[in-house]
Amino acid sequence: MSLPELPNTRNRRELRKALVRLRLEMHRQEIRHESAQLLAPLSRLRAMGDSLHGGLGIKHAPLWGIGAVVVLGFLTGKGTKNGNLSRMIRLSSSLLPLLKLALQGATNKR
Hints:
This is YqjK-like protein. The chain is mainly alpha-helical.
């Protein structure tokens, strides 16, 4: 982000060129600044996700998040024609891989 050199001449053409270069550099810096402001919430979310994953020490945190969403979906979803039995069967079949991962993680920590 170094500024263009100003000519030491009184030549109008060279001065105009230098002025155009300065304007272009100013526009580049404005674009960088605006894009950084637009991306700031995204970078904050990424940092928050990294700190949540690393800070709590939870292995496979995204997988647990998906599992929580699945459980909430089954528990708060609309009733089916077959009743609660089919809901519980679907819930257990979708949570089985998560439970296996949790049990493997618990045995690996010992």
